[in-house]
Predict the 3D structure of the following.
Amino acid sequence: GIQVEQSPPDLILQEGANSTLRCNFSDSVNNLQWFHQNPWGQLINLFYIPSGTKQNGRLSATTVATERYSLLYISSSQTTDSGVYFCAVETSYDKVIFGPGTSLSVIP
Amino acid sequence: KAGVTQTPRYLIKTRGQQVTLSCSPISGHRSVSWYQQTPGQGLQFLFEYFSETQRNKGNFPGRFSGRQFSNSRSEMNVSTLELGDSALYLCASSLTRVGTQYFGPGTRLLVL
């Protein structure tokens, strides 16, 4: 099946800093989503982005499907951004496959 | 619009018992998927139901089963519980089989 990798695995930021999270996948995908899991375990959908670029406030995401990667940008980070960020892909053969996640800690 | 709800939120069972978890999707959503999250294996897909039919199944033993009712509510059952079944079980719903998934808060299962 498809392999999904995320980098970096861990990230510590000072409040106000910017960051880029990366998701690489080994095969063509039908869908790609970015999620944020808060410290209480709730998964929140950030972007549904099989291709192209989307922005939502301080967050934006770009997926280059032909090169099999997606990027999540976080600008002016806040402590509430802390948590784990997952990308998840779906192919014609595999239901949603999650990457291992990037654990983000934003310190004041 | 109410979000995805899961009951119970927390559960403690002993080895060998069975457990049933419930998921109520967002109103109008017909697809319900279940996931298991553990520290060791991360997030793994269990199965997907759409219009009361199982459409896809992950790589889990037959002890894990589920069903979906006509109102799109779904249940999953785990029989003969093992210590390794301790996990956060997440349910997600979407309008169709392809599209944005919305997750519930999860059920934390501890098997002793």
Observations:
- Chain B touches chain A at residues 33, 35, 37, 42-45, 48, 56, 58, 88, 90, 92, 98-103, 105-106, 108 (CB under 8 Å).
